[in-house]
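User: Before I run my own analysis I want an independent prediction to cross-check against. Here's the chain; please return only the structure tokens and, at the end, one sentence I can use as a sanity check.
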Amino acid sequence: MKHLTSTFDKINYSPVLFIILFFLCHYTQAQTPVIDSLRAQLSIVNTQEEQASLFNELAYEYFVEDLDSSLFYAESSSVLSKKIANRKLLSTAYTRISDVKAELRDYEIARVYLDSSLILEKELKDTLGMARATTRIASMYRSQNKWEEALKYGREASQTYANSKNPKNYATALTTLANTFGDMAEFDSSVFYHQKSLAINRENGFQSGIALSLLNLGNLHWQMKNPELSLEYSRESLQIYESLGWSSSIAKVLTNLGNAFFDLDAFDEAERVHTRSLKIRQSNPQLEKYLPLNYNNLGNIAFAREDWKKARQFHTQAYELRKEEESNLTYLSEINLGNVERMTGNYSQATDYYENSLAKIEQLGLQHRHPEVLLWLSASHGYLRNTALATEYLNRYNKLSFEIDLKISNANNLERRLKAERSSRILEQNEAEKQQAINDKQNTVIYSLIAGIFLIILLFFTIFRISQLRNKNLASKQLESLQKERIQQLIKEKELEAINAMVEGQENERLRIARDLHDRLGGTLSIVKMHFKSVEESIEDLKDKNISQYKEANNLLDEACDEVRKIAHDMASGVLMKFGLVAALNALKETVETAGQLKMNLIDIGLEERLSYNYEINVYRIIQELLTNTLKHAKATEMSVQLFRKESSLSIVVEDNGQGFEPENQDSAKGIGLKNIEGRVYKFDGEVNIDSGKGAGTTITIDLPLNEEVL
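Assistant: Structure tokens:
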């Protein structure tokens, strides 16, 4: 975590944010309606916090189809979250980055980001956030075949979600547990957790969760040699994914369907869906890592048709791709190539492939996933007349296959029991609901008759009176409403007139004092200085003591002249008058930062040409008043002032990272400073918007129209 923090602390955020915005404007690719909606929201959000949150959501949505885009948005969110010091959004961004890195099999980097996310969630004392990180750690351990660790973290996460009543994440944690048990060939536990996850997703209408549970159950039942049930689950999953438009998930479901068709000897159907899955993955560079699986499946179909040449071609393609990726799954291709060699009479070559694959299977702890390798090794050694080895492998196969068949039988029994219990519950619930509906209907009829008679009597006596009162009240309310509107309009107009008069009076008083200081007191001091100059001619005649007093008085007089000149220039905004608004604001920035209490950032766009002096002095006073409020009340360390000149308006955005306030609270929102600002703004028919909250800083946006008089 220290490493990640120190790295982001060194980032210069201005160019980074510019790069993010540039890519956002130029990113084009296939998108879902959800992604389109999120990207549209990016153009209208007002705060960096909202931007970072949308980046995280986009990273999540893109994860299924486009890992590059997912990583881009997650990293963009991490930059913004770090800048605004939002640890919750930063933790989510780290989680999204970890998901992508894990999908790319970069487990070391993925674990660093997950650990960083977990540390942030612990600092925030967010149990759900900790559970989210824990779920992903479990998934990562599962990807590395570290099942005990995966089960430990998976159970911890599912328990947290169960207690917090968070159904969506609870279902996800249960899916992780179910898949881990499936990898371990603990089929009954896998069925139990998958069915529980599916029930939660169905109950809450989580379509993507339902589709994922069905996909996993389809794959699990294919492993359990239940191709008919695998087809049932996979077809329902495919229907949902096609409605969502998730092509990568569609390719996975098609693989399940193809495997089930293959086990049912429907080779044409199997080839059709496997070929469709292959084309989807070939069209998306992000999915190319799954191509060996498609080549294996097509090779198995050719093998079943006894087309040894085509089978060898597909399996060799898969083998070469896996070797190139340094994938652990090369053992699958070696098994398939061994089968081709065995069926073509190359028993020695087949044995070599089987032995290599068995060594890798045992190293990965996957013996229970592929007991058939032992059977084929036994057959190959039998052809080579290695009777002892053939017998040994056959005995190992019989023992392992018996254990697996027993687990499958237990899992099938559990599945039937769960379905029966669910059907019974649904039937009982339907009967109870039906009887309750009958009772409710009878009671409703009785109560309705009684209530109807009473209402008719009551209605007869009251309808006439109500009719009289209604007309009278309606006229009274309309008159009262009009009076209130007139009063409010008059109050508002008088208040604005008073504020405008006060602001104009302040500005006139500033100019009068400045002129008086410069013309009257400044002139008087200059005459006194001339008299002192004439005294200098007879200075020699003065005594030493008087000389010292004279020099001291002369120095004080010089200082007084300088101070009068400075005050006059400050009050009349001398820099602004001579050099314009931007120069005056830069001078103000230097003055503020010299005091060391506040860092002030100034951005101006489109202000190369000057506006009228009256317009510029009012803008300057507005920003000066906002700065004063920030220094007095906000307890901020950083302030940003942005001016954007458009064709017909000038936008001013002032942000600080202070303690903020509640705009709805009239005591805090309508002080003298803000009233002065509103008066100046309304004088030019402008608008003021305040976005603030306790502990969230303050953003004030001002839009002032530009017209020919201003220009």
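Sanity check: The radius of gyration is 40 Å.
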